[in-house]
Write a structure and sequence with these properties.
48% helix; three-stranded antiparallel beta sheet; 6 helices
Length: 164
């Protein structure tokens, strides 16, 4: 059971609940992979001559460097993305909006629906094409709740603006 579902008040019902979008994670993974492969391809001579030949007595080609780079990026990013996905939890109930991030350390933000003053939507080009974005909810004073990288952000914004 998620953190949010286990901490609902009496009489409180969830109207919407989600995690960070898989599309966001896949898109950022692909971008890191492409940049890493391009960098390793263009700097392969430098990597082979200056780094690998000094520490290791092996002779490998550009293709091996590119494949090794892709493998390293995959091994390093996969656990980060798994923790990011399972560590995020966003919800809109009939009483409040709730954002939870983190697994080991936890950062929870919540705001009563009556306290909301504005709801802003941020979407870049990829977000518009793939239907994901970030919602920033501002309340009285300086308080805010942020839903990072969620699917269908326009629908969620309308849900919040209609006060559920």
């Amino acid at each position: 059971m998620s953190y949010i579902k286990s901490n609902l008040d009496t009489g409180e019902k969830l109207k919407w609940n989600a995690r960070i979008s898989i599309k966001v994670l896949i898109l950022s993974y692909v971008i890191f992979l492409i940049l890493g492969i391009l960098a390793s391809y263009f700097f392969s001579d430098l990597i082979i001559k200056e780094v690998l030949s000094v520490f290791f007595k092996i002779n490998i080609g550009t293709a091996s460097i590119v494949i090794l780079t892709a493998l390293i990026i995959t091994v390093l990013l996969t656990p980060v993305y798994i923790f990011t996905y399972y560590g995020s939890d966003f919800a809109v109930s009939n009483k409040r909006v709730i954002s939870k991030q983190g697994i080991v350390s936890r950062n929870v933000s919540e705001m009563n629906l009556d306290s909301i003053e504005s709801v802003n939507l941020d979407q870049n080009v990829f977000g518009r094409l793939l239907n994901f974005g970030t919602i920033k909810i501002y309340g009285r004073g300086t308080s805010s709740v942020i839903f990072i990288g969620i699917d269908e952000p326009v629908k969620v914004r309308k849900l919040i603006q209609n006060k559920s």
